[in-house]
Design brief:
alpha+beta; Alpha-D-Glucose-1,6-Bisphosphate, Chain A, domain 4; 8-stranded antiparallel sheet; globular
Amino acid sequence: MGIEKYISEVKFIASPQESVYNHLSNLKNLEPLFEPNRLEEIKNQYPNTPDIKLDNFRATADECSFSINPIGNIGVQIVEREPSKLIKLTGNQSLPFQVNCWIQLLPVDVSNCKVRVTLHADLNPMIKMLVGKHLKDGVDHIVDALSKMQFEG
């Protein structure tokens, strides 16, 4: 096994850094993204995304879980917050490999910021071969979706 690092592009968000951080640092705020009609919108927006079904999303401020067909139940929790700058998440034991995700925010000016997502995954060579490209595409899709979200400021 080896730690693989997948780094997204840096994207611009037309919202203040603090507003973006406040929204993303509470996993309960992600619930609207998992509504069936919103998931269909996302699939249409990213046609090359693997055909997976997400449902049973549940969240608290610090943890969330959901089902991914055909993988099963997945759980994620926030393990560290650095106000307005960084949110670190990790997967729970339901994942077949250890994963850590960092969402980094940088100010551009008082009403705009930049975002980057970094994923660290402890993958054996076979799993890396199967999912590596999907993980890289995934972090880019996540950061792209974040750049298009509206955050209250």
